[in-house]
Amino acid sequence: MSAVLPVLSARLTAAVETTFGLPGVDPELRPATKPEFGHFQTNLALRLAKIVGLPPREIAVRLAAALEVSDLCAQPEIAGPGFLNLTLLPTTLAAGVNKIGGPLRERGERVVVDYSQPNVAKQMHVGHLRSTVIGDALCNVLRFAGYQVIRQNHVGDWGTQFGMMVEQLLDEGTEVDALDLDGMQLLYQRSRKHFDSDPEFADRSRLRVVLLQSGDSQTVEIWQQLVEYSLTEFDRVYALLGSPLTRADVVGESAYNDALQGIVDELASAGLLTESGGAQCAFLPGFTGRDGSPLPVIVRKSDGGFGYSATDLAAVKHRVDDLHADRIVYVVDHRQSLHFQQIFALARAAGWLPPTIPAEHVAFGTVLGPNGKPFKTRDGGTVYLVTLLDEAVARAAALLADRPGLDQDTVARAVGIGAIKYADLSNDRSNDYVFDLDRMVAMTGNTGPYLQYAHARLTRILDKAGDSPTLVTVLTEPAEQRLALLLGGFTDTVVQVAETLQPHRLCTYLYDVATALSSFYETCPVLSSSGEVRASRLALCAATRKVLHDGLGLLGITAPAAM
Ligand code: ARG
Prior knowledge:
Structural class: alpha/beta
Shape: globular
Distance between the termini: 30 Å
Bound molecules: arginine
Low-confidence stretches: none
Strand content: 5-15%
């Protein structure tokens, strides 16, 4: 919550050791739940009562006497049955605000983030929105926390469906050059139908996959065209979304093709494979279905083809061996949880994923429509991401239409796209959420536009003030103390998000800052005050603006100077 927190915690630990001879006790110091409890509180004395054999209040009194924090806090207070409350000195609060900085120094660790992962020949849908928005935010946060970040866009560009599509195209005599994105999607649907209804076509499609995997030039050429169309479309969506993903981050499933045989061979020689119904499978302890039957990882299908799992195993190996990952993060919807648990377990069993390298599935829930069911168009079709983004920008433009002197296009884009991203990120990612544009673009409540507006209002005040703000020196009012306390916790909050991979914690923090800012406005005049108070409050405004600007930036949201 605040950078002083670790310091105070260490001093409490030391006090427990000198007073009771107990080393290394975690005081579990927490932000106070009410202003009258100061800034931080701990139930340490209550927890020690049994161990030490003294009444909690007695313990609290002794601890308070032994605790050396007079450089940072007012005299510690004891409340209720033995809670210890700490109140920071205004100078401590001011120091916390005055040293808010940028990204932390590189810690010499690399994190690979697998995210976005749209599929070739299909339009991106709301599920890919979540992966892209959460993935971008996590990359920014991890970078801020000192990691070197390697993005991997695991595009679905390989598999049976491409055999089907190429075969259908050749059957129909359609020129691949004549296809646009919709044409591709329709071709996919026709080939799927054909595949499901005509066993002879299905056989040819499987042979076509083999041709593709073995590099047959005619097949590869058509496939490459399909991939190229799709990647161009993905680039367009990323640009609209303001995602930094580029072609250089694309390492599609096809990239692992040549490694797949080796994966199967290694697993076989490690004794990890069993033949089951003609397929090569790994059965791992602890993976069973509802009926108790063992759940396999199929690494080679009965038709000889390699599947999604083999590709993911090769990807793990590549990320550890070639990219030298110290941590691997997968931003994929929760329906693939079992898949990733199995991949991680098998990769560990095979020795490809050392125990020192964490692999984490950052699972997320489903985007729901107004009816509370997975988001679909009125006629049950897929909701395209581009349509939603365009709609959000139009909505924002309508809201901003009456504001003079704005660069309407730029601001509407920042607000519309920001609204969608914030709505997605501010929910605990494991939950489903309802896609409700009206609520997302609202200027009040826990929304992106509300935070953007708070930032723009601060910019206006600071511009009006004229003189450039210096340092926070005076913090007398509770409202400005509360704001300062929060601001001082910015870096810690971001570091916490880098650990937990939960962007909603950063959203909650920024919303708390904006709420504390409006209480500050109510009780602490800024422009109409004078002297040192005015200078200090302007500095507090500048720090708040920086935190909102940088915090939104980490979430992938632009904060316009005016709106
Ligand atoms: N393309 C897949 C899909 O749309 C997601 C890929 C996730 N990443 C991975 N390494 N398996 O469902």
